[in-house]
Amino acid sequence: MQSTVAARAISIRGLKRKLLKWTAVGAACACLPMLAAAQSKQLFLYSWANYVPPNLIKRFEAETSIKVTLDVYDSNETMLAKLQAGGGGYDIVIPSDSVLSTMIKSGLLTKVDAGKMPNHKNVTAPHDRPPADPNSDYSVPYTWGSTGFTYDSAKVPGGKLTDSWKEFFEPRPEVSGSIAAMSSQGEMFTAAAHYLGIDTCTENPADAQKILDILLKQKPSVKIYSSSGTIGRMAAGEVTMHHQWNGASYKSGLKLTAAVFVYPKEGMNLWSDYFVVPKGAPNVENAKIFMNWMMDPKNAAEASNFNGYNNAVRGSSAFMDPALAASPAINPPEAMKARFRPVKDCSAKARELRDGVWTRLNR
Question: Are 277 and 317 in a shared domain?
Fold first, then answer.
């Protein structure tokens, strides 16, 4: 009899434990939709500064009920280092073609089958098949442009400079000390390489030394190294010459009518930027929604009107600012297009040489 009572007691205690366990599991299951709902309303975006229009973000939030949190960086190197260190927790980042291949090969990105998204049909060639991601498995094109330099024609002798990187790297005495250079390793290294006629992905230490020499020679003439605030700095007359992306030059010219964008005859970077989803992104589905939304012509045009760069979306021209389309900084004369050099994703050895040059320049 005692054993039967004891067995019943054990059975009751076991049943209570199961009930408690089931209750806990049920509570957890009930919480999961709430958690998913909370996550489904978030998008963490990591972008170049002043690149994605605030009003565009507000409209995306209104149309999708997804709240966007924006952080900014000033170079591909900064963004890449953060992701490689495992930091961020971002859903969307915007790398350039110079690092896209590296990010894919290094396993830093999530495959999102962007080429199968409904609005991908709007993407124009050749942006619909980027060399680093020919099937658009990982990326959606955002904007594309070029990198040259801008000068204030009211402040230079005779009101005009030659169309050569020499004006930037070996400036005239009247301009020396009033130059702003980018704080981007990739942009500065490649600009110097173009000027010297060196492969931008050189693996030759002697070539790297030549590039370092010209950068060190230029350094005393440089007032500031900064890739951010270039528009305001140029428009306010803080410098006479600025190493700039063409969109930034266009926006500088809206405030400074004497601003002239130069397409250096030695060659210049032609680049594209992309929306991608980092590995481990907390809100992948929301990232996909954003990527598809940005391939709508009206949305792509609003971005271009804000940041001053061309986009790769068919039909967007109908919504773009006529002044943007007419700007020689954005749409260069046909003869200037021969000076474009598509940005390459360099080997590890080449990147190591670049790192060494940049480290020594910044000592």
Answer: yes
